[in-house]
Amino acid sequence: MTLRLHMMKVKKDNSKMKNRQWIIGLFFLGMAGMAHGQSRLLRMDEMFQLADSHSKSINLYALAVDEAHQAIRVAQGEKLPAIQADMEFKYIGDGCMTDRDFSNGVHADMPHYGHSFVVKASQVVYAGGRISRGIEQARLKHQVSEQEYWNNRQDVRFMLLGYYLDLYQLGNQQVVYQKNIEQTRLLVKDMEAAYRQGTALKSDITRYELQLQNLELGLTSTADKIDVLSHRLATTLGLDPEVQIVPDTTALRQLSVSAGNEAFWQSEAKLSPRMRMAGLQVELGKNRQELVRSERRPHISLVAANDFTGPILIEVPPLNKNFTYWYAGVGISYNFDALYKSNRKLKQARLYTRRMEEAQALVAEELDNSIHKAYVDLKEAYIRLRTQEKSLQLAHENYHIVRQRYLNGLALITDMLDASNTQLDTELQLANDQIGILYQYYLLKKITGTL
Questions:
Q1: Structural domain range at position 296
Q2: Is 180 domain-assigned?
Q3: Strands (E), 272-322
Q4: Which pLDDT score, from 0 to 100, does residue 280 have?
Q5: Is residue 99 part of a domain?
Q6: Across the chain, how many H-helices and E-strands are there?
Q7: Tell me, what's the pLDDT at 61?
Q8: What is the pTM of this model?
Q9: For residue 321, which of 104, 127, 290, 332 sits 20 to 30 Å off, Cα-Cα?
Q10: CATH of the domain at 358
Q11: Helical residues (DSSP H) of 238-272, grouped into ranges
Q12: What is the pLDDT of residues 101-125, one digit of tens each?
């Protein structure tokens, strides 16, 4: 009678295991609180917001974006007029005048204190496109830095998401280990009762007590892994590392994940940061060619200046007076050496553009292959999950049958151990397969730049 009551209780407990997903969050929270005394439920969107503010990697790329934006302003400054002022105060020594053969030297008194003050302003009217192309170059580099920022942001989010899903997976494993520990303890009690009645061997109890120790060790190891991942996640997010981070398993279970259509993911990838960066590099190469061509064009500018000097030394004897004059006009300059020097630069710029075009095609090919593989893996993950759910059902049925046969003396302890191990392995694999679907789905979003 006692054995039957125990068997009924075990069946009831195992039926509840089918709904274990609904208690993972509470169990995980409780385990975290017991281990560290303080825990924090962290939503996925909250984790991403914290990463944007505290991730050193994201902040580094954000500073690069600000730097590139400032470079645009520097390039635009080339359009402004240039104003230059030169001032000199000097002591002038006496002069000496001789014949052309250096004979008949005559001492010449000079005014000893001199000065010079020159103000010059110029405004570029035409620079062959150099200034406008320089501004465009700065803008393209700013856009590249923005895409690098978004790409790095995707990488950081996916890394944190990996930690987050690992915590979810380990929480599932905790539940599985705990349920199997409770089940094994109940079976040990049944064996001890049977041993007292003379229907079981002491060695059977010992072997299952060893099985129980292994399960408890697995539970401890899982808790330690949770502690390590929680600490790593907390330090990255700028949180107190002593606080145990608990994933929001309720939101993850309610998340609608669908494989969708591969064509949809392929179209999303065309707007990914990697593709945009590749396209911008091609544009940079073309702009670089125009910069080289601008060297072959004349530069025209408006010039105005005022010169105030003294004394006047070009007269003999020199005049100890001030002299000032101003002028305004148009300046034209042309570098004739650009006709033969720029050819090599232009060829180099063309080769750079061709290389960037090939790189763009390579990125498109790699994204196509990556998306196809991730999409196929996501569909396979769904099939694996359905197969594993059926395997778990069969493992539970097999365990109940073998357990009943063992209690009735119709099965060996080795059969019981095999059934228990099979059930444990199947439950752990099911937990992994459930997380695998989420991982493959977010991998697709990361590849397409939509995470």
A1: 2-91+111-447
A2: yes
A3: 299-310
A4: 94
A5: no
A6: 11, 8
A7: 93
A8: 0.75
A9: 104
A10: 1.20.1600.10
A11: 249-254, 262-269
A12: 888 888 888 888 888 999 999 998 8
